Amino acid sequence: MTEKITLVALDMAGTTVSDDGLVERAFGAAATALGAEPGTPRHDRQLAHVRATMGESKISVFRHLSGGDEERARRANAEFESAYGRLVADGHCEAVPGARAAIERLRADGRTVVLTTGFARVTQDTILRALGWQDLADLTLCPADAGGRGRPYPDMVLTALLRTRAADSVRQIAVAGDTSSDIRSGTAAGAAVVAGVLTGAHDEATLRASGATHVLGSVADLPELLTRLEDGR
């Protein structure tokens, strides 16, 4: 029987929010700032890295791609965040089916819900406004809110615990996400439940190899999973 889960940290893009290729489309706008024109081998290599690091802090990804050139990394990140924000504002943003109901069910069951992201705060807020989710969760966090490192570090999960004081132990925390970075972050934080979902970037094998305790078709399945675990089923 699992201890009562009182704090749930949920990723956004790919987990509660449909990505639908927006990250890759926004990367195209940042490629020029990195000196990689679309259609070139360099662009293809950088795009492969973006895919492999889905879920991580975007500024960290661009620092890697720029070879440590902080000015170029920040310029590329700004282009990326601006392009992603425009796509969202133009209507290319939808909730994963059942995500809102799942969050409402989790909170109705007495659990505190925190939405986390690898995006900057301005982009996170744009997504929340587009979906009408400003008051849906108890708290929202981006990497800057947790010291800047983002995933796969445990910082956002632990910041959620410190900010909300919703759990007495990390064994009362559940984390859900669609990427290996999400899973590694939850595992590093010591969460009792680290659930991968199949609505985003990475497949079941990748999620399990990263340490997922469970793999679900969707975040919509999470409330029932937690109830079953707590009931010992």
Structural key phrases:
233 residues, alpha/beta, Rossmann fold, 2 domains, six-stranded parallel sheet, two-stranded antiparallel ribbon, 8 strands, HAD-like_hydrolase_sf
Instruction: Report the strand count.
Output: 8
The H-level CATH homologous superfamily of the largest domain, spelled out, is HAD superfamily/HAD-like
User: What is the percent of helical residues?
Assistant: 40-55%
Structural class: alpha/beta
Average pLDDT number: 89
CATH architecture of the largest domain: 3-Layer(aba) Sandwich
Structural commentary:
The chain is an alpha/beta fold. The chain has helices spanning 22-31, 41-52, 58-65, 70-89, 99-108, 121-131, 155-164, 180-189, 204-209, 222-230; strands spanning 7-11, 17-18, 94-95, 112-116, 139-141, 173-177, 193-197, 214-216. It folds into two domains: 7-19 and 94-230, 3-Layer(aba) Sandwich (Rossmann fold), CATH 3.40.50.1000; 22-89. The chain contains ten helices and eight strands. The chain has a six-stranded parallel beta sheet with strand order 5-4-1-6-7-8. Helix 1 (22-31) crosses helix 4. The longest helix is centred in the middle third of the chain and has 20 residues, at 70-89. 52% of the residues are buried. This is Haloacid dehalogenase.
